[in-house]
Write a structure and sequence with these properties.
about 230 residues, about 10% strand, Rossmann fold, globular, alpha/beta
């Protein structure tokens, strides 16, 4: 008798981290359902990458439309300049203006709703608390608190079918993430990390996310296949 795969919902952004998590979840034998968001971000490159990644792995993939730009407050959704730097050493511990208020809280809520409908008890998200920009909704404390809430707020949780939020990258450096992805065959040319890409999709090379990505590839000794301006 063939084993029935466990269903899991994956937050797929089109970025390096979520592409790696997708490969990890598939390797672990999950039947992965990917969800991405058109949330009012100023560019669509990441969604194009997410669509390509999901298609390449033959996943069921939903793109959900919400509008966080109606609230603004972030350089990713509002008319605010994306900060640029000459090197990763210029990054500080301050939460940057590229933080989108409540984004992961909102995204996880949609993932939770789909998980309930699917009968899935697992959600995967590519948050990281080491080589990242200091966003409060990427910390282990946030994920633990959200998981507790989710198990109180759902029918499955009330019935004792515990939902787990998986964060396999939470304590890895960017170099470790890239190395793991390369082992799993992730095509990083189909990922984007840039907060301020050119219209043709090339990365700026100077925003926080680009600098952390470039640092990661440099530390692995592997070239970054993504095009830069």
């Amino acid at each position: 008798m063939q084993d029935i795969k466990k269903k899991a919902v994956l937050l797929l952004s089109g970025g390096l981290d979520s592409a790696t998590v997708m490969a990890m979840a598939l390797k672990d034998g999950y039947d992965v359902y990917a969800v991405s968001f058109r949330y009012g971000q100023r560019h669509s490159v990441e969604l194009d990458c997410a669509i390509e990644q999901a298609a390449g792995s033959a996943l069921q993939h939903k793109i959900v439309d919400i509008d966080l730009s109606s609230f603004g407050g972030s350089a990713l959704t509002d008319d605010i300049d994306v900060p640029k730097h000459d090197g990763v050493e210029e990054l500080t511990d301050e939460i940057p203006v590229t933080y989108v208020p409540a984004r992961n809280t909102v995204f996880l809520s949609y993932a939770l709703a789909w998980a309930e409908v699917l009968g899935a008890n697992d959600i995967f998200i590519g948050v990281n608390a080491l080589d990242y920009s200091g966003y409060p909704d990427c910390r282990p404390e946030f994920i633990a608190a959200y998981e507790t809430m989710a198990n109180l707020a759902t029918v499955s949780g009330v019935k004792g079918q515990k939902l787990t939020i998986h964060t396999p990258l939470i304590d890895l450096t960017k170099a470790e993430i890239i190395s793991r992805g390369i082992e799993l065959g992730v095509d990083y040319a189909k990922t984007t990390s840039c907060y301020d890409p050119a219209p043709d999709g090339r990365a700026c090379g100077h925003c926080d996310s680009c600098l952390l990505r470039l640092k990661g590839f440099s530390e692995t000794g592997e070239p970054d296949p993504r095009g830069y301006m």
